Amino acid sequence: MSKKIKELQDIANIMRRDVLKMTNAAGNGHPTSCLSCAEIMACLYFNEMKYDFTNPENKNNDEFIFSKGHAAPILYSALFRAGAIKDDLMSLRKIDSNLEGHPIPRSLSWVKVATGSLGQGLSNGIGFAMAARLQGRKYRTYVLMGDSEMAEGSVWEAIQLASYYELNNLTAIIDVNSLGQRGKTMLGWNTKEYKKRLESFGWNTKVVDGHNIKKILKALKKAKSSEKPFAIIAKTVKGKGVSFLENKEGWHGKALNDSELIKALQEIKESPMPLVNIVKPEEINFEFRNEQMMKNDYSIGEEISTREAYGKALGKLCLSSNKNIVIDSEVSNSTYAEEVKKTSEKQFIEAYIAEQNMIGISLGLSKKGFNVYASSFSSFLSRAFDQLRMSSISSGKFTVCGSHCGVSIGEDGASQMGLEDISMFRSLIGSSVFYPTDAVSTQKIVKMCENLGGIKYIRTTRGKTKIIYKNDENFELGEFKVLKESKKDKIVLVGAGITMQECLKANEELKNNKIETAVVDLYCIKPFNSKKFIDFVKKHGNKIIIVEDHYREGGIGEMLLYEIKNSGIELKHLFVKEIPHSGKPQELLEKFGIDSKTIVKTALGWKR
């Protein structure tokens, strides 16, 4: 055995001992899932990857994504043994520890994306790999996956797109230990089937013994010369190194007790930590270009859909900076994201009909410094909610646009009508939610999102709406716009997007009935300046009619009810109450009671 191979094997066993002690101290964890990938981790962190272990923010470091995040203890051990972190490994899972049960960026800067919800790491890795190309950097991205997560559809979304874009700087390593949480995985140790499936998707592959250091190193070397994305299919044993754990069911997620720990440590050779030389990456500099964004000039009264205004704003935004990237799920001619192709084609990424993968890639790109704008129909974003949730946990910073929202899209029918999207995005911690009414507000909100943190959501309308704002109008986070008001107001009409237009029509009709109303455009749903809003309503009748093209649950009305609680303000809520139907947009607004006629009827029927 060569010195290098012996040293890497010693490191693998050192990490095995660390893991068993850490999980024993914590009283829980997933030690057997760690033991199966010890040799893989040793080869990656102490021989293969180039990184500055003193600087996790070095933009040229090779990137590692631990997609099987439940095996976090061995990642922490690798970082500790490499000198990258100084944390007490025995603090694993404690309330004041950085070493959480699953990796999360909040705790460790070496962790770029949160993992633990299986099937997402490879999508994040595509984002990293694409960023390397866009910035001309030479770092490679490695994603360690568990065999259980290979059952996730999002994994195969990622596999096919990585092949399409020929991401030869991306290597996936699959830890095929054959055991999942409750027993055998779908394919068990059938590595030939993994190989066949991956190669059918256009990847180069290599099946190896995942505990043979020499063969792992050889496969990693082969990956670097591949012209395609490369998958190492590593046949391993869950619980490797401890006889009473090896390939035994019923141990997933269980730590050893004290007597079991003593017995296990007797089976794993104890060695001093070898002195290893971790190679630093080649320094390649890349600077984003930033210029003043050119604005579109719109005229009041002109009709243009907010989805089209979104695309036009993106075109100008991408011209102003190569930091901005647009990604779409094969509906860019409807979301108008394709406008970017006309001016900055390299800043557009086609993700095809794979919304989960699109969001995962968006997170990866954003973590490498890009301002990402991802778009699809609002109704289709719900399938990517877990990716959005994990992006929020990862402190992600990117913008999502959902077009074709609500019943106002018309004849396409219920399956295409996003009526849950506001609720979904409001539920994300630290998110911002916008619903612009016209082209001017859309353009300003798109620009605002460029510099906002967190996950941002822009809801756009399919049909054309009249421009109501001047081009120099200012829009701020958390605010709202007062479009109509008088000293005689009895009710405040509140709308956003398509219903804002209905509120303006209702305002005129109510004037004819001798009822003065204020009209508020609630373009920013989250965050919301409730104090300012309450003060305004109290001076304008102390009554609200809120109308929205959304289901009741989690929408604007429920948000307002919470924000004005204990204020003494009365509120009437108009929303979509049932599964909608096909029809013309105005017919549907009327049928489901969110049109100007219903607003007027509600106002007239309100005892004053």
Strand % is 15-25%
Low-confidence stretches: none
Shape assignment: elongated
Strand order in space, largest sheet:
8-7-9-10-12-11-17
Query: Quick one: biggest sheet?
Result: 7 strands, mixed
Q: Which value, in Å, is the CA radius of gyration?
A: 28 Å
Helical amount among residues, as a percent range?
Answer: 25-40%
Number of strands: 19
The structural class is: alpha/beta
Mean pLDDT across every amino acid position: 97
Number of helices: 21
Distance between the termini: 91 Å
Task: Give the topology.
Layout: H1 3-26, H2 31-35, H3 38-48, E1 63-66, H4 72-81, H5 121-135, E2 141-146, H6 153-164, E3 170-176, H7 191-200, E4 204-209, H8 213-224, E5 230-235, H9 258-265, E6 303-305, H10 306-320, E7 324-328, H11 332-335, H12 339-343, E8 348-350, H13 355-367, E9 371-377, H14 385-393, E10 398-403, H15 421-426, E11 432-434, H16 439-449, E12 455-459, E13 464-466, E14 481-484, E15 491-495, H17 498-512, E16 517-521, E17 524-526, H18 530-538, E18 543-551, H19 556-563, E19 570-576, H20 585-591, H21 596-604
Parallel strand pairs: 1-2, 2-3, 3-5, 4-5, 7-8, 7-9, 9-10, 10-12, 11-12, 15-16, 15-18, 18-19
Antiparallel strand pairs: 6-13, 11-17, 14-16
Helix pairs in contact: 1-3, 1-4, 1-9, 3-4, 3-8, 5-6, 5-13, 10-16, 13-14, 17-21
